[in-house]
Amino acid sequence: MGSSYRSKSAHMADIKGKGILYEDDDEPIKLTDHDVSQNINEFKLSLIGKILNPKKQSVEKLLQKMPVQWGMEDPITANDLGNRKFLLNFTTEEELNSVLRQGPFHFNFCMFVLVRWEPIVHDDYPWIIPFWTRLIGVPLHLWTENNLREIGSRLGHVHQDTIELIEGRMLLDFDSRQPLKFARKAESPEGDEVTIEIKYEMLFKHCSTCGMLTHEKEYCPLIQRQGVFARVQLQENRPQQFSKPLVKKEPNALHSKAL
């Protein structure tokens, strides 16, 4: 009876966590139970998104307003996934594509990522934003489809068959974790350099200092670091002020004699 009671007590302690030995283990936990085909089928009509500027955006407000803006409150169900991410579930392929065609996307005048869901395991996923991009300043005798594709491939991923030669325009996938480039140097076969200007269509608020989409200029880490450095330099270059030593005055001789 006593042995049975002690065994039962130990079991209850384990259930409550009192008898668990927590080891100092930082190794990744292996997730071995999965059925990729079932999950892919379940989320084949889903878009996954992520806000980029949490100071100006919230997932909760985005999920309240964007379906209304798209005119799809009823066909869309939404889930907040945490970590600035969310999932939009559609009932038909046509409805999903009608939303995707409206990209690139912005909420509260700041960009956010929205792509078709894929079984990708990464803390940063999703991160791709497609922009229609226009190149300005390519010399006329070098204005060819191959040259435009070469420039585009140095900026992002060029969508197949999207290069518009006359307009100097193409659809590019950009990594939102990297700063946007607004100018690049190009070199002719003879070694002469020219500056190519880059224009992004439907680009909303971003940092004009570093090119990131995750903040605006007033929150740029580069400016904040420069400000701290400038204050440190100012303190170092400030002339040192030495206090004058106190000099003990001798008593007046006449006054001393009078005493």
TrEMBL record:
InterPro entries for this protein: At4g02000-like (IPR040256), DUF4283 (IPR025558), Zn_knuckle_CX2CX4HX4C (IPR025836)
Q: Which Pfam families match?
A: DUF4283 (PF14111), zf-CCHC_4 (PF14392)
Q: Which residues form a coiled coil?
A: none
- Superkingdom classification of source: Eukaryota
- Domain annotation DUF4283: ranges: 40-119
Q: For the Zinc knuckle CX2CX4HX4C domain, which residue ranges apply?
A: 174-221
Check the record and name the PANTHER family matching this protein. Answer: DUF4283 DOMAIN-CONTAINING PROTEIN-RELATED, GLYCINE-RICH CELL WALL STRUCTURAL PROTEIN 1.8-LIKE
Q: What is this protein called?
A: DUF4283 domain-containing protein
What species does this protein belong to?
Brassica campestris (Field mustard)
Organism classification:
Eukaryota, Viridiplantae, Streptophyta, Embryophyta, Tracheophyta
